[in-house]
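Local shape tokens:
==================
===
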Amino acid sequence: MELFAGVADMLGKGLPLLYLFIMIEANAAPHTKQTALILWMSAIHSLGIEPQFMLSDKDQSEINALKHSWPQAKHQLCLWHTLRALK
């Protein structure tokens, strides 16, 4: 599977988009989403992009893929998701 690095320009900053289009069937093989994310993040990494911080909504497949692709980057939960979880 070949994935392209879908990145948009938002106010002069890169905004990753492709992960928004990943849909996994309920009966998909284990780690399918994580594998797709790692492939996509590898394409981003190959462009020389080295983020220092990552945000997620606490999806374990996203966290695992982020740690695999950029182990040096700090991972944080999205503030909106954190506040929502506290409510």
